[in-house]
UniProtKB/TrEMBL annotation:
PANTHER family: INDOLEAMINE 2,3-DIOXYGENASE. Heme b binds at residue 404. This is Uncharacterized protein. GO terms for molecular function: heme binding; metal ion binding; oxidoreductase activity, acting on single donors with incorporation of molecular oxygen, incorporation of two atoms of oxygen. Belongs to the indoleamine 2,3-dioxygenase family. The keyword Nucleus does not apply. SUPFAM superfamilies: Indolic compounds 2,3-dioxygenase-like (SSF140959). One of its GO terms (biological process) is L-tryptophan catabolic process to kynurenine. Pfam families: IDO.
Length: 501
């Protein structure tokens, strides 16, 4: 699909104007200032964080590429396992790689592109094409080796060289955006991959369609667009975060508590949206498209990495697409002053920050620095009723992470023995590392109010949340121990060249 020139130009003007508005100077937070989030990016971006759009792009994604990229557009339209018309696509028969070599013998020059919307759409589309090319053999292998129920397949090896027709423009676009030249959550697979059906309606699930997909399945649509629907609530999270930081700086207890209540409401809506994943994306379908969002780092699929032809002869290693790249929970962690344990699992968590739009990474750093500057955690725990609100936010963080862990167990662990998640983290130990720490933080916050005078409803809520955290921690310990018997190679990094198949 190629947009009419007038429509295409209008969309670009909106996105470009929104991007230009963000180019201010990043300021270090001070304890007494009434701060906003003044971001200064060194690269163009459509992901300008605000109280209106939260972590979504400031304008809806560009749906189709300009005419200059018609060959790439055509390949992507024919790429999915099942095309929009219901017929098999290039990936269904393993024909995508050959089609790339035949139809794109040389690289398209992208150096003249400066429009942030076009650059981000190119990044999305070149990363889709690159992942399809590199992981096509793995998809064929897993389908060939899976049982009748679609479970138990093995992945084999991906392609170790990305042809210059994809590698060169992808590297150039990535450099312009300040991104890694590989598929990511925000600028590729999820947050720049939706089309609004009715322009005057909000971004509820029923009002969105996908722009790109690997499988063409309704479950892939559900998997991606539930994430978009979740992030559609983050404008309120951003507003409450900024408001609470400023209230803490001014020691305005009433305003601080009010913003915590607003933050709790936003996180409640996000968690409720997340729960719809069960009905909108079948666990039985997930492995049918999961292959294509895997990375090339810390994975047996690419033990020697991938060479980007025409860019460098040195192999590259990149993390795959992962919901861990989302900024909802990192924002909450940083606001609440949650400090993860100093271990290899936390190092992976920090590494994921490099796979976000620059504005998102700057935002997370800003929230973390300002929360420390105004002592959010200490300020919250100094008042018993604020402390219960703080504890309830930790519980919403726990709920989010627990649901993510439940998804992992049902969508992946029950159906596959592959030890590594799409982002290159160990499948069994990584999420529990964070969840366990949140449960510990809840116990600490609850203890801080143990002898404090509390309203009766707050005392009851504290006891309920404290008991829930203790019970869940015991269950989590048993789960990780039991699953560790099934999944080996759960270190943060594994030398896959030394591991026998």
């Amino acid at each position: 699909m190629i947009l009419a020139p007038t429509t295409r130009c209008a969309a670009r003007r909106v996105a470009s104007a929104a991007a230009r508005r963000s180019l201010a100077t990043l300021q270090k937070p001070t304890a007494g200032s009434n701060a906003t989030f003044p971001v200064g990016t060194t690269h163009p971006s459509v992901f300008n964080i605000s109280e209106k759009n939260g972590f979504l792009p400031a304008a809806d994604p560009l749906v189709a590429l300009p005419e200059k990229y018609a060959v790439l557009e055509s390949l992507l339209q024919r790429m999915p396992l099942t095309k929009a018309d219901g017929t098999p696509g290039l990936l269904a028969t393993g024909a995508f790689g050959d089609a790339v070599k035949t139809e794109m013998p040389s690289a398209i020059n992208v150096e003249a592109e400066t429009d942030p919307a076009v650059l981000t759409a190119l990044f999305r589309d070149y990363t889709f094409a690159a992942s399809a090319y590199l992981l096509e053999p793995c998809d064929l292998h897993v389908r060939k080796t899976a049982g009748p129920d679609g479970m138990g397949g093995t992945y084999g090896l991906g392609r170790s060289v990305l042809p210059k027709s994809l590698a060169v423009p992808l590297a150039a676009v990535s450099r312009k955006l300040g991104a890694k030249p590989f598929m990511e959550y925000a600028q590729s697979y999820a947050l720049y991959n939706y089309r609004r059906i009715e322009q005057d309606r909000g971004l509820d699930f029923e009002n969105m369609e996908l722009i790109r997909a690997f499988s063409g399945m309704q479950s892939e649509k559900g998997f991606i667009l539930v994430h978009v629907a979740m992030v559609a609530h983050t404008g309120k999270q951003v507003a409450a975060t900024i408001g609470a930081l400023n209230a803490a700086a001014k020691h305005d207890r009433a305003a601080f508590d009010s913003h915590l209540v607003a933050m709790r409401s936003a996180l409640r809506a996000i968690n409720d949206e997340m729960e719809t994943m069960w009905s909108r994306s079948s666990p039985a379908d997930y492995l049918k498209f999961r292959t294509f969002i895997m990375g090339t780092k810390n994975t047996p699929l690419f033990p020697k990495g991938v060479v980007y032809e025409g860019v460098s002869d040195a192999p590259t290693f990149f993390r795959g697409e992962s919901g861990a790249n989302d900024s909802i929970i990192p924002t909450l962690d940083n606001f609440l002053g949650v400090e993860m344990p100093n271990n290899d699992m936390t190092a992976i968590l920090k590494d994921f920050r490099a796979y976000r739009p620059e504005n998102h990474s700057l935002w997370l750093s800003w929230v973390e620095e300002r929360s420390k500057a105004v002592s959010v955690k200490q300020y919250a725990l100094a008042d018993p009723n604020s402390a219960v609100l703080y504890l309830s936010l930790l519980d919403l963080c726990r709920e989010f992470r627990q649901r993510h862990w439940n998804f992992t167990k049902e969508y992946i662990i029950r159906r596959s023995s592959h030890p590594i998640a799409t982002g290159g983290s160990p499948i069994v130990t990584w999420l529990p590392n964070q969840l366990d720490h949140i449960l510990g933080a809840m116990a600490q916050a609850a203890a801080a109010t143990r002898n404090a005078p509390l309203a009766s409803e707050n005392a009851a809520l504290r006891d309920e949340l404290e008991g829930r955290a203790a019970a869940q921690r015991s269950i989590l310990d048993r789960e990780v121990k039991d699953l560790g018997q099934k999944f080996k190679h759960q270190a943060a990094e594994t030398d896959w060249n030394a591991v026998k198949a």
